[in-house]
UniProtKB/TrEMBL annotation, chain B:
One of its GO terms (biological process) is protein insertion into ER membrane. InterPro entries: ASTER. The keyword Acetylation does not apply. GO terms for cellular component: endoplasmic reticulum membrane. The lineage of its organism: Eukaryota, Metazoa, Chordata, Craniata, Vertebrata. This is PAT complex subunit Asterix.
Length: 488, 106
């Protein structure tokens, strides 16, 4: 009884200890334990005896190193084997390989593929590249660096272009200053100062446009000079100009008072420029009906064309000195336009025709091209000085130029014709405008009558309006009768 | 010195003050570039801010620079500065929200 009791207790204890032991050791080691245990625990065996036999020869290197010391403690046989195993593991790989082959393929999955300590896995290691935004390197921000570089290039170009334009403008002014100051009492005015004192410098309107106002001379009211340079400060414009070369221009507009100029319209310039002017300018399109004629007839180079109101005007303007000027500097002349009816380019109005004739001013307009086709240097500005001389000469000449009687009559007829045409075209519109005005008045009156609260007053106003209408009708009838009588 | 130099064409009494040409009479002569670029810059910077597109913001910066380069001296500097600041803020906000580098469209 006592013996059975002891057995039971010991078996119970073993039963408790067994899972703990099992937890520490690998299956193979568990086999060893199982072998030593009673067959009561045979149910815990998951492997057959063959495997058990094999495992006894040598433990796989997979066996954790920590389990080995415990094994050594518990099983002497195993200890010996372990030591062998350990030595075998450390000394030679071939011994290990032999050992591996003995292992059951079922038990150890993928075990056969293992070769030595540097074993490769079934799935190859894929090394992913770190995405660009997680890399902390400047190289990944190359687009931003490009953008900033572009901006810096733009700023550099702005500074360089601005300076170049400024230098060109001042070079022009320095070369022309003497001539202007000897001809005009006021050189340089921005219109803001209280007294009319020469500022003696250019007005900078833009980074590429400079103005100069000169006044105080016989034969003219004033002269506005505009230096229209290329937009060297804008990189986009610089790139566009590489495709299509353009020139810097000097535009001069001389305004004359009424007695400074006789009535004529005339233009000379490059073929392209004169064609464009004739199409766009109000006065040239109205007064100069003929197409631009070649300047060769008057001794000018073939590249220039003339648009004129009448032949006499051309003969008068193109005297020998003018021809000399123009021929010598033909490459710099874009257009020259003299007009007593200058009103600017044709204005496109939405309602069809403007109701009033545009205001005209007697003007001389000159457009000169700066030589160099964009690649100008400040020295080139000196070559424009003779052209300014020509301008001064023209002012004096125009004052003296008078048409003969025939010419004057022709010119007056032209102007009357233009005015009549204009009035005819706008007649319908003017009538409409007058009609609408009358209707507006009537409507306003009617509203007043309606709004009148006092019925008495309302009646009286209505009667007054009726009387007025009747009077108008009577008047019209009278007129019609008179016309009929006259016709008879 | 009472002798009047006939060759001197200058006349003090004929001086006229400079009157800047009004732009109402000839609006076609005005260069519209700075105004267009200003508007484009504002549109792009709003796009960049709202839609969080980095390239929009960068184009807005370029537009405001171009507008500044083409502007007339009479134009208000406040307008220029405001469009410039708006575009810079668009760029900064796009990068704060999303520090990834800009990817090229190709």
């Amino acid at each position: 009884m006592r013996r059975a009791h002891l057995l039971l207790i010991s078996s119970l204890l073993l039963l408790l200890a067994f899972p703990l032991a099992r937890g520490r050791y690998s299956d193979d080691d568990g086999e060893d334990i199982v072998d030593f245990d009673d067959n009561d625990f045979a149910e815990f065996e998951d492997m057959n005896d063959e495997q058990a036999a094999e495992t006894e020869t040598a433990p796989p290197p997979r066996a954790s190193q920590t389990s080995k010391p415990e094994e050594d403690e518990d099983e002497d046989e195993a200890t010996v084997e372990l030591e062998d195993g350990q030595d075998g593991f450390e000394d030679s790989e071939t011994q290990d390989q032999d050992m591996y082959r003995k292992y059951d393929q079922e038990e150890f999955e993928g075990f056969g593929d293992m070769e030595g300590p540097g074993h490769s896995m079934k799935d190859p290691l894929i090394i992913h590249t770190v995405p660009a935004h997680l890399q902390n390197s400047w190289e990944s921000y190359y687009m931003e660096i490009l953008m900033v570089t572009g901006l810096l290039a733009y700023i550099m170009n702005y500074i360089i272009g601005k300076n170049k334009n400024s230098r060109l403008a001042h070079a022009w002014f320095n070369s022309h200053r003497e001539l202007l100051e000897s001809n005009f009492a006021l050189v340089g005015d921005d219109g803001t100062s209280k007294e009319a004192v020469s500022t003696g410098k250019l007005n900078q309107e833009n980074e590429h446009i400079y103005n100069l106002w000169c006044s105080g001379r016989v034969c003219c009211e004033g002269m506005l000079i505009q230096l229209k340079f290329l937009k060297r400060q804008d990189l986009l414009n610089v790139l566009a100009r590489m495709m299509r070369p353009v020139c810097d221009q000097v535009q001069i507009k001389v305004t004359l008072s009424d007695d400074d100029m006789d009535t004529f319209v005339f233009a000379v310039g490059t073929k392209k420029a004169t064609a464009k002017l004739q199409k766009e300018m109000q006065d040239l399109s109205e007064f100069c009906g003929d197409k631009p004629k070649s300047g060769a007839k008057y001794g000018l180079p073939d590249s220039l064309a003339i648009v004129s109101e009448m032949g006499e005007v051309t003969d008068g303007v193109m005297d020998s000195k003018m021809v000399h000027y123009i021929t010598n500097h033909a490459d710099k002349i874009e257009s020259i336009h003299f007009s007593d009816q200058f009103s600017g380019p044709k204005v496109m109005q939405e309602e069809g025709q403007p109701l009033k004739l545009p205001e005209t001013k007697k003007s001389l307009l000159f457009t000169f091209n700066v030589p160099g086709m964009g690649n100008t240097s400040p020295k080139d500005m000196d070559s424009l000085l003779p052209l300014m001389n020509m301008v001064i000469y023209s002012i004096d000449k125009v004052k003296k130029l008078r048409l003969n009687r025939e010419g004057k009559q022709k010119a007056d007829r032209n102007r009357a014709r233009v005015e009549e045409n204009f009035l005819k075209q706008t007649h319908a519109q003017r009538q409409e405008a007058a009609q609408t005005r009358r209707e507006e008045k009537k409507r306003a009156e009617k509203e007043r009558i309606m709004n009148e609260e006092d019925p008495e007053r309302q009646r009286r106003l209505e009667e007054a309006a009726q009387r007025r209408d009747q009077k108008k009708i009577e008047k019209k009838q009278m007129k019609m009768k008179q016309i009929k009588v006259k016709a008879m | 010195m009472s002798f009047n130099n006939m060759a001197d064409p200058r006349r003090q009494n004929k001086i006229l003050r400079y009157k800047p040409p009004s732009t109402d009479t000839n609006p076609t002569l005005e260069d519209p570039t700075p105004d267009y670029m200003n508007l484009l810059g504002m549109i792009f910077s709003m796009c960049g801010l709202m839609l969080k597109l980095k390239w929009c913001a960068w184009i807005a910066v370029y537009c405001s620079f171009i507008s500044f380069a083409n502007s007339r001296s009479s134009e208000d500097t406040k307008q220029m500065m405001s469009s410039f600041m708006l575009s810079i803020s668009a760029v900064v906000m796009s990068y704060l929200q999303n520090p990834q580098p800009m990817s090229p469209p190709w």
